[in-house]
Amino acid sequence: MISEVIFLEYLSCLLEGDKPKCSAIVAHLIENKVDPKELYERLFQRSLERVGKLWEANKICGATEHMATTITECLMSYTYPVVSAPEKIGKKVIVACVPKEFHQIGAKMVADVFELYGWEAYSLGANTKESELFKLIKEKQPDLLALSMSLYLNVVRLTELIESVKKEFPDLEIIVGGQAFKENSPEFLGQYFNVKYVSSLKELEKFIKEKSKPEKKSIA
Ligand code: B12
Known about the structure:
Elements: H1 4-16, H2 19-31, H3 36-56, H4 62-76, H5 80-83, E1 92-97, H6 105-116, E2 120-123, H7 130-140, E3 144-148, H8 155-168, E4 173-177, E5 195-197, H9 201-212
Parallel strand pairs: 1-2, 1-3, 3-4, 4-5
Helix pairs in contact: 1-2, 1-3, 3-4, 6-9
Bound molecules: cobalamin (B12).
Cobalamin binds next to α3, α4, α6, β3 and β4.
């Protein structure tokens, strides 16, 4: 459990740009075996949401927001030894942000959760170009494509991407998530074959557990 006191101390250090103190807090939590998903949602995501609100209200400047983001991305790498499961299960996922989407931290978290469950996760980060994505799909032959979108104004780019992927790789299953759907319905995704909206890391975990089950062999 991440207490409110720890959260507020971390937030204050983050806003100060005090990376050593933020880093010490995260290291302490990891040492105390805090679940990486809790660290992601209850510390990193929650603090960045606060940062976003302060920035929106003009209480901090863009530079402070950038600083907080950079520190967060750096600290996320501390969890790597925890999330990289020793045993791979032979499943692959490509995680990407839609074109022109520069918010990439959520997508990185998604990739880490897949790794935690033994998947090979290929994370492409922000603003993924369709041509690059297609090259990687051909090369890696993933079981799944996970797309992240934070800004709803990118929705046309998302639908265009889904349509192109479905044309080129009709059987590739796609999941979509991200804060763009906090206030906007993902219902339109229902029109596509094998495309699903996943709302949170908790839901993602359920989804991964289901997909990680060994496939039943048919008796000839
Ligand atoms: C950091 C940040 C940036 C950074 C991003 C850098 C980076 N390396 O990622 C930069 C500076 C680039 C940026 C730019 C902009 N930003 Co900005 N940004 C943020 C901030 C502060 C944090 C984002 C973040 O990382 N959150 C933490 C992550 C972990 O949360 P998350 O993305 O929601 O991901 C979680 C879930 O959604 C889910 N998830 C995400 N993807 C997926 C995918 C799948 C498949 C699944 C299952 C789940 C899933 O899992 C994650 C863990 O729970 C937010 C504030 C906020 N409320 O988040 C504003 C915010 C998102 N930005 C905002 C805005 C307006 C912008 C700009 C338009 C500003 C500008 N005028 O230039 C640009 C747009 C850039 C673009 N085209 O993408 C607004 C969006 C408002 C809106 N409703 O549309 C916000 C909310 C700030 C605010 N309060 O106004 N931003």
